[in-house]
Fold this sequence. Notes:
The chain is mostly beta strands. The protein has strands spanning about 5-10, 15-20, 40-50, 55-60. It has a four-stranded antiparallel beta sheet, with no helix packed on it.
Amino acid sequence: MSAETKVRVEGGESPTEFSALTGNDGGAMLQFEMPKLSGADVALVIEACRDGAKGHLRFQLRAKPRA
Length: 67
């Protein structure tokens, strides 16, 4: 059975969400162009759902300091 996976970028200039189903090995590949970021509180959120079970990961994104 497949799980539905979704990725979204919070804090971007426009709302973005991408989705895919996992394969037999439980993996999913989501490729997308990173949207322009506009806020100080920017995060990459990954969610997976299957048969009523849900899980999520949240990664805080920060700009690299300029040299």
